């Protein structure tokens, strides 16, 4: 039954019902170990060390990269404050055709591992240790089945994704960058993401003049001016995309004033925009609203600050989705195909009840195996870039015209090495 669950698609009536104790499955016990080790951003060292040892025990060559902290680590309340990326590959070949990657940091607070018959709860159980465990298991199974070899894949597990993306930014100096495909692991409910929104954040500063609240005309009320701007921002029409939907604005923090009987001299708000289309135009429209009120100015954060991200989804057999959250995809340099896929839902990812279904974990192993094999030995592909209208219509996802089939559908090296017959067989077995 265990073997069946990890190699065949589960019928829908069986999902939620599969009972597989973590102790009896390599996938679930790997996932358990990862979730049990706390790794809130800034404290990833312990989980990284464990993961490095695990990958070495599975015959990977492992390199670590210090991203932040002291070389020998600094302990704060028993936790080593040191952030290290983990890069692994087979044998001596660092440069590979496909990269599997995700992040090992999680958001606070730590929530302990808890297992039920059908699900695993705990911080990081979904975002993104489910992806990490499923990717590694997929790689191990492909190696055991003889479908991949040295030079085909490497693994990269980064720190700092939940805050600044510093881990992935630093990884650019660690890893080679000539991949044909990079498969990013984040919770996408087992769907292949067609794109995700960008993100831009800023502080609104409102400068007024303090006065006695009985004589408000002698001062300038910074709070009132801030409220005027926030009201206009709420109604602001931002560039929208028919692929990614509307851009959205979240006023996340507000502060202002010192006492009820003092006209406030200072107020500010911190705002996040999920950018669905045209970052420059979005910034222009927001600046226009903010600077229209005297005494109010805007400070854009340097990071995060990027526009919508287009992803590749030219592999058959996956449902597609659009993501509203940010990822590390933008920070990894190189001219590679970008796939975003993983088990679990982003909707539970940062919440108190974070969980992942065990059946999703097993399904994700199948999904990653398929993506890896397709990235190395492509069979039939849907176009990498489609017009928005076409995304909504399922039958248009399969396009027969050779000129619109994506570039990697005709990878010459792959043909030479394996031949078409073996290629097809590899895919059928999955
Ligand atoms: Zn994540």
From the structure above, extract its key features.
alpha+beta, Alpha-Beta Plaits, single chain, 430 residues, 2 domains, disordered N terminus, elongated, 25% strand, Aminopeptidase, four-stranded antiparallel beta sheet
Protein architecture, described:
The structure is a single chain. The chain contains twelve helices and 20 strands. The model is unreliable at 1-7 and 386-430 (pLDDT under 50). Helix content is 29%, strand content 25%. It has helices at 2-7, 26-36, 45-57, 129-144, 166-171, 222-235, 279-291, 346-349, 358-376, 388-391, 412-418, 420-429; strands spanning 60-69, 75-76, 79-80, 82-90, 98-103, 114-115, 119-121, 153-158, 181-185, 192-196, 198-207, 211-212, 248-256, 262-263, 266-275, 296-306, 309-310, 320-323, 337-341, 355-357. By secondary structure, the chain is of the alpha+beta class. Strand 6 (114-115) and strand 7 (119-121) form a beta hairpin. It binds zinc ion.
What layout of secondary structure does this protein have?
Elements (H helix, E strand, L loop, with lengths): L1 H6 L18 H11 L8 H13 L2 E10 L5 E2 L2 E2 L1 E9 L7 E6 L10 E2 L3 E3 L7 H16 L8 E6 L7 H6 L9 E5 L6 E5 L1 E10 L3 E2 L9 H14 L12 E9 L5 E2 L2 E10 L3 H13 L4 E11 L2 E2 L9 E4 L13 E5 L4 H4 L5 E3 H19 L11 H4 L20 H7 L1 H10 L1
Parallel strand pairs: 5-8, 5-9, 9-19, 10-18
Antiparallel strand pairs: 1-4, 2-3, 4-8, 6-7, 7-20, 10-17, 11-15, 11-16, 12-14, 13-15
Helix pairs in contact: 2-4, 4-9
Zinc ion (ZN) binds next to loops.
Sheet with the most strands: spatial strand order: 1-4-8-5-9-19
How far the N terminus sits from the C terminus, by CA atoms, comes to 17 Å
**Molecular shape:** elongated
- Rg over CA atoms, rounded to whole Å, is 24 Å
- Write the CATH fold name of the largest domain: Aminopeptidase
The count of DSSP E runs of length 2 or more, i.e. the number of strands, is 20
Helicity, as a percent range: 25-40%
The distinct ligands, each listed once, are: zinc ion
CATH architecture of the largest domain: 3-Layer(aba) Sandwich
Strand-residue proportion: 25-35%
Q: In total, how many domains does the architecture comprise?
A: 2
- Report on the biggest sheet: 6 strands, mixed
The CATH class of the largest domain: Alpha Beta
Structural class: alpha+beta
Family: Belongs to the peptidase M20A family.
Biased composition (Basic and acidic residues): 414-430
GO molecular function: hydrolase activity; metal ion binding
Protein name: Zn-dependent exopeptidase
């Amino acid at each position: 039954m265990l073997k069946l669950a990890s190699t065949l698609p589960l019928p829908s009536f069986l999902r939620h019902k599969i009972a597989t104790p973590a102790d009896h499955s390599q996938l679930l016990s790997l996932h358990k170990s990862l979730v049990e080790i706390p790794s809130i951003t800034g404290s990833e060292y312990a989980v990284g060390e464990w993961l490095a040892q695990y990958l070495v025990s599975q015959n990977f060559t492992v390199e670590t990269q210090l991203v932040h902290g002291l070389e020998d680590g600094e302990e704060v309340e028993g936790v080593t404050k040191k952030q290290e990326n983990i890069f692994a590959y087979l044998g001596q070949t660092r440069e590979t055709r496909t990269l599997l990657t995700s992040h090992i940091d999680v958001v606070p607070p730590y929530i302990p591992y808890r297992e039920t018959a059908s699900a695993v709860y705990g911080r990081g159980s979904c975002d993104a240790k489910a992806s990490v465990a499923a990717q590694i298991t997929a790689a191990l199974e492909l190696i055991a089945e003889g479908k991949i070899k040295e030079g085909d894949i490497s693994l990269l597990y980064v720190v700092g994704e939940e805050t600044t993306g510093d881990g992935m930014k630093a990884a650019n100096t660690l890893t080679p960058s000539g991949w044909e495909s990079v498969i990013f692991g984040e919770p996408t409910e087992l769907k292949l993401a067609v794109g995700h929104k960008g993100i831009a954040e800023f502080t609104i500063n409102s400068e007024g003049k303090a006065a006695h609240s009985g004589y408000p005309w002698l001062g300038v009320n910074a709070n009132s001016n801030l409220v005027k701007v926030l009201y206009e921002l709420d109604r602001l029409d931002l560039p929208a995309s028919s692929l990614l939907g509307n851009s959205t604005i979240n006023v996340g923090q507000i502060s202002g004033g010192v006492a009820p009987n003092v006209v406030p001299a200072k107020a500010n708000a911190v705002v996040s925009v999920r950018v669905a289309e045209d970052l420059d135009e979005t910034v222009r429209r927001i600046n226009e609203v903010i600077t229209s009120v005297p005494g109010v100015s805007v400070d854009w954060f340097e990071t995060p600050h990027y526009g919508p991200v287009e992803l590749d989804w030219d592999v058959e057999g996956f449902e597609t989705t659009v993501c509203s959250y940010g990822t590390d995809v933008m920070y990894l340099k190189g001219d590679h195909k970008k796939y975003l896929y993983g088990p679990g839902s982003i909707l539970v990812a940062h919440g108190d009840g974070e969980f992942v279904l065990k059946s999703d974990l097993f399904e994700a192993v199948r999904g990653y195996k398929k993506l890896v094999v397709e990235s190395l030995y492509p069979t039939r592909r849907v176009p990498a870039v489609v017009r928005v209208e076409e995304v909504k219509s399922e039958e248009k996802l399969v396009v027969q015209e050779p000129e619109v089939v994506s570039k990697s559908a005709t990878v010459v090296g792959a043909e030479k090495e394996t031949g078409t017959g073996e290629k097809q067989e590899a895919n059928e077995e999955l």
